[in-house]
Amino acid sequence: MSPTATDRAPGAALDVRSITKRYGDTPAVDAVSLDIRAGEFVTLLGASGSGKTTLLRIIAGFADADEGSLLVDGQELRSVPVHRRDIGMVFQNYALFPHLNVEQNVAYPLRMRGMRGPERRRRVAEALEAVHLPTFGRRRITELSGGQQQRVALARAIVSRPRLLLMDEPLGALDRNLRDALQLEISRLSRELGLTVVNVTHDQEEALTMSDRIALLDRGRLVQFATPDDLYHRPVDDTAAAFVGESNLFRGSVRDDGTLDGADGVVFSPPSLVDGSAVGSGRVAVMVRPSLVRITAVGSAPEAHSRVDGRVSGIVYAGDSRKIIVTTASGTELIAREDAARPLDVSVEQPVTLHWDARSSIVTRLAAGSAGATAPAPETRRTARA
Amino acid sequence: MGRVLTNQGGGRRWWISVGLLGLLFVLLALVVPLAVVVQRSLDAGFDNFADALASASFIRSLGNTAVLAVGVTLCSAVIGYPYAYAMARSGRVVSRILLTALMLSFWTSLLVRSYAWQVILNDTGLVNEALQFLGVIDEPLQLIRTPAATLIGMTHILVPFTILAIFAQLRGISPDLAIAARGLGATRTRAFWSVTFPLSLPGLAAGSLLVFVLTLGYYVTPQLLGGAGNPVIGQSIVEQTNALLNTGVGSAMAVILLLIVVVILGVAARFLGLGRVLGLATERSDR
Amino acid sequence: MKTGLTVRIVGIVIAVLLVVPTIVICATAFTSGSAVSFPPQGFSLRWIEDVLGDRRWTRAFGNSFAVGLLAALFSMVAGAALALGAARARGAIASVFTAISVLPMIVPLVVGAIGFYLVYARLGLTGNVLGLALAHGVLGLPYVFVNVLALLRTLDPRIEEAARVHGAGHLTTLATVTLPLLAPATVVGGLLAFVSSWDEVVVATFLSDARFQTLPVLMYSQIRSGVEPSVSAVSLIVTVVTFAIALAVFAVGPIRARLARRSSRL
Questions:
Q1: How close C37 comes to chain B (CA, Å)?
Q2: Can you give the pTM of this predicted structure?
Q3: DSSP A140
């Protein structure tokens, strides 16, 4: 959208300060704080029931928090009624006005702001051009495909150059190809316009692709608020590690000698698994990404690598990669992921050794109340949410 | 931090205030008049009620109404059931014809239909002419101004409610059930009585209840077809208020009628759900 | 499993009985004789012309139309308002809205008529369009309420949230989004309310006087004073108007269904 590059209106900074919302006794959102910078693209990521949608609705003004404050460029937003918050919003099911045509839908926010005449027409045309639907103005909403409807919804959300752009699972109803194309388009558009975006999704891939930062929520609490890179490589605890990307997780206590108690059969190398700070800190989780795990015949793993023996229990192809599932003597399932183009040199039931560079092990704390905090055995969790 | 005005609550409050607008209209236009009827009925203590209940003609009209309501309900059930069944289980053409006939009848003005029955049942009406032509009778039969005329007219007016209620119920019963019963060796008749009929009973009950309650309040049709000789409650009430200008007793009678209706609906609501009964009345209810 | 032949024949016979009265009356309107008889004697339009040329009938026709339109308007505004309240309030308040909306359906007309008469007479609301329209408006309200409520149940609340978040206040959202979306159901309910007013006799009799009569009131008094073909002619006209409205309702029905489908898919 080149015409607007000259008169872009950068989004506002949004300071979410310990927002809490309870339904009955259970907090749906539990003291969540986020400092969202102007022009930043932030995704609230979490499973259903994590509180991400509630938090978005609080920001939009459809629900009010019980505690905390929302500051937009330093001003309290909570006392501002929905229609004065200067927000653009994209809904999961688009929520277009079925009785209005495309142009009228996109013009709606401008109409509400009292803008009329040629200026309004120009802005509507610009917005439609930005979403690649310049000739669709007169179409009825019902004549559009799902993808086109979502573009119209996007045009309607950005046409007034709002201080905040909120998106509630914007791509949830679309098929995969369309989703991938729109993901890129939405990130491009939001960056070009300098919009501050708060996006909600349960799709970690979408979150990792589009966001400057991701706020990972779990049961109403903020687990981690970090860049995709940090979230992936430096999860703060086992919840984050398990939710974002695939992981092999070993939970246990760090012994005085630096090895992990409870992770039967796993030889961590070098023996001093963690630096001194983790020793005596109680239970921890050690995470290894499946893509960093190598698989060899028993006994042929490099000395310097951490390793564990097991038996191949399954081989699953997934696009360009394949997953090799290995069950250890204690019954734990671990995953190694390798390039599908490589020749397959293991077969089911074959005894193998899984090994990985010691630097691939990431030590995190255990989340309070997480399953691993009480379960003694090492455990592998794969996210089922991709 | 203090509780800031919640927008969601504000939203709910907004819709409540919108609803209150309509509520106010019903209160002023209907509830106040009903309250005044109650007040007028009590303007001499319970004397008006005592007078009403001491009136032989009112008691007789209560009996007439009860008999009429039972009769109309039974006739509607007997006529309405096969009709609804044929409508629900016939082929496209027959179903269409039956539905169209039903709607033509249903949408004809209540007054026009009462008038039509008057014309048909007259001494020189269609029925008497036909019977005389066929030589069945020599002198015209007294059909008009009889309880039978009221029964015929009221059944014609109200049977659509029974039909629609049963039809709605039958449509929700899969024909496969009866087919399955036949597959297990039941005859067509036995399959109907052992499977389809029991499942359709809630619709029959809802429709019958509605017809019964609606019959209680009718005035015009009994007046035109039954005449003044065998009055129903509605006629008693109108006579008190219009002819005798005794609004106190008339109001007492009206309150009694209202109480009867409310009690019946209240009891029915416990078993059938009021929505089920009244949901049908919304198609088109004329009294 | 198709029905047996017997059931179908019984059905057709009842169908004939259902429509016979309507047909008889419409036919007697075309008689050339001076008595209402079936089959009619000859064929003429004299009674229809008679009625259309008679000031009493045309005035009553005009009164009925005015009352029906105004009543439908009252029903639509109040019925839609109550449906919105019932759908969007919670708990006891929603129940109150629903109860008050079905009340007009429960009250026997005779009972309502006395109440209207007692109150409206004191307020000068008898013998004019406004009083009867208020009474008929409240009696027709349930049609609008039920239809609008059914549509509201299928309406995606996010469409209105979209209006709110993009700058519309409560009232603006109602005017620019909610009401346009509810229009088909409101109109259907309004048409039904019109029809129920159009042929209502009991309340109309109580609220009319010698100078102000609606069509049913005049018809009723004519029928009582002796059957005449002019009444059949009026019946024919009344029936034609009602059927025209019925067709309109069935025409709007598909539009509403389409709208409901649309909003459920979106």
A1: 7
A2: 0.84
A3: B
Interface test with C, best of B20, B104, B108 (most C CBs within 10 A): B108
Mean of the pLDDT values across residues B210-222?
92
Spatial separation of the C-alpha atoms in residues B195 and B199, rounded to whole Å: 7
pLDDT tens digits for range A275-333: 544 545 667 788 888 888 888 888 787 877 888 888 998 888 888 888 899 988 878 88
Residues of A in contact with B11 (CB under 8 A): 62
* Gap from C193 CA to chain B (nearest CA, Å): 9
pLDDT at residue A68 above 60? yes
At the second CATH level, the architecture of B45-277 is Orthogonal Bundle (1.10)
Percent of chain A with pLDDT over 90: 43
Q: pLDDT tens, A178-217? A: 888 888 889 888 988 899 999 999 988 899 989 999 999 9
Distance from CA of C51 to the nearest CA of A (A): 44
pLDDT digits (tens, 9 = 90+) for C211-220: 899 999 999 9
Return the residue in A19, A56, A78 with the most chain B beta carbons within 10 A, the one to mutate for interface testing: A78
First-to-last alpha carbon distance for chain A, in angstroms, is: 32
Domain ranges of chain B: 1-41, 45-277
Which residues on adjacent β-strands are paired with residue A76?
Answer: A71
Q: What is the pLDDT at residue A356?
A: 86
> Pick from B19, B188, B220: which is nearest to C220 by CB?
B220
Residues of C in contact with B121 (CB under 8 A): none
- Please, what are the domains in chain A? 14-228 (3.40.50.300), 240-385 (2.40.50.140)
Q: Are A153 and A100 in contact (CB under 8 A)?
A: no
Does C122 contact B at CB distance below 8 Å? no
- Minimum distance, in Å, between the CA of residue B19 and any CA atom of chain A: 20
Q: How many CA atoms lie within 13 A of B258 on its CB side?
A: 24
Strand ranges of the sheet holding A75-76, from the earlier edge strand across to the other edge: A26-36, A14-23, A67-72, A75-76
A97/C168 touch (CB, cutoff 8 Å), yes or no: no
In terms of Cα–Cα distance, which of A60, A80, A61, A77 is closest to A69? A77
Closest-CA distance of chain B to residue C78, Å: 4
**Quick count: other Cβ atoms within 10 Å of Cβ A359?**
9
Q: Over the stretch B45-101, which tens digit does the pLDDT of each residue have?
A: 899 999 989 988 899 999 999 999 999 999 999 999 999 999 988 888 899 999 999
Q: List the chains bordering chain C where 3 or more Cβ pairs fall under 8 Å.
A: A, B
In this predicted structure, which of A118-122, A268-272, C186-190 has the lowest mean pLDDT?
Answer: A268-272
Closest-CA residue of chain C to A115: C167
Q: What angle do CA C76, C81, C82 make, to 5 degrees?
A: 105
Of A201, A253, A210, give the one whose Cα is nearest residue A365: A253
| Residue among C24, C85, C104 whose CB faces B120 most closely | C24
Residues of A in contact with C176 (CB under 8 A): 108
Interface residues of A toward C, Cβ cutoff 8 Å, are 60-62, 81-85, 87-89, 91-99, 108-109, 112-113, 141-142, 149, 156-157, 160, 166
Given an 8 Å threshold on Cβ–Cβ distance, is B1 in contact with A82?
A: no
Q: Provide the mean pLDDT of chain C.
A: 88
The answer to whether residue C146 neighbours chain B at the CB level (below 8 Å) is yes
Q: Is C166 on the interface with A (CB under 8 A)?
A: yes
Res. B131: pLDDT tops 90: no
